[in-house]
Amino acid sequence: MALLEVKRMSHHFGGLQPVLDYNLSIDRGQILGLIGPNGAGKTTIFNLITGIYRPSEGDVVLDGRSIVGLPPHRIAASGLGRTFQEMRLWRHMTVLEHLKLAMYSRIDYGLAGAFLGTSRRNAQEREFEEEAMGLLRMLAVDRHASQLVTNLSYGEQRRVEIARALATRPKVLFLDEPAAGMNPDEMVRLIEIVRKLHEELGLGILLIEHRLRVVMELCQAVQTLVFGEVVAQGTPSEIQNDPKVIEAYLGEQRVED
């Protein structure tokens, strides 16, 4: 059984149907890309799977268990982490605080420990900080741990958001346009980091990205979505040369970006 399976998922907003009969299967260690023109329904699919919306039809199974109807925080705790198309970082918090906050669903020292500063509380806080610093090192932003996140460059903020998602200890990671707004150097760095995460953590990854170089370099398989339906699916080279994809998304240009 796949780590994450989406079975015939559809959704309706009134008379609109942004997602129709969507299917997905992700195994451990697999990177799958999801591409398509603006408004195709890509982020809606992320929101349906992660519990922000409830699918009108179909099922979502994570590690053998249906997660349809669970609230987003329960889905995250079950092993599905994500980033957002528009970064959701808190201006008043440091880089390290962002990651520690993402870990607090795992707290087991209770209210008494929080108020009294028990040894159990102190030990778990040290454990969280060590784990958070390890993730920041992996994302190459550890030197900014004590800084407010607003002091970082745009590309570094994107990496902090990925580190925060990893702090929930996901089995599957959803990345929603992680290279958006990055300059070419930042984009190359991001590709290297995601590849490293894949190799070291063995996560299943679903990637939405308009920068097609990122998709083609990282993904083992790619789905193309148009008006809520998958019109093509295959390897990056197959997708790049598929007439339906060229017509709907790539136009006349090859993927050189």
Can I get a quick summary?
This protein is an alpha/beta fold and 257 residues long. It is 40% helix and 23% strand.
**Terminal Cα separation, in Å?**
36 Å
- The count of β-strands is 10
Average of per-residue pLDDT values: 90
Number of helices: 10
- Anisotropy-based shape: globular
CATH topology-level fold name of the largest domain = Rossmann fold
Element order: H for helix, E for strand: EEEHEEHEHHHHEHEHEEHH
Strand order of the largest sheet: 6-7-8-3-9-10
Radius of gyration: 19 Å
Question: Which second-level CATH architecture of the largest domain applies?
Answer: 3-Layer(aba) Sandwich
- Unreliable segments (pLDDT under 50, ≥5 consecutive)? 252-257
- Please summarize the sheet with the most strands: 6 strands, mixed
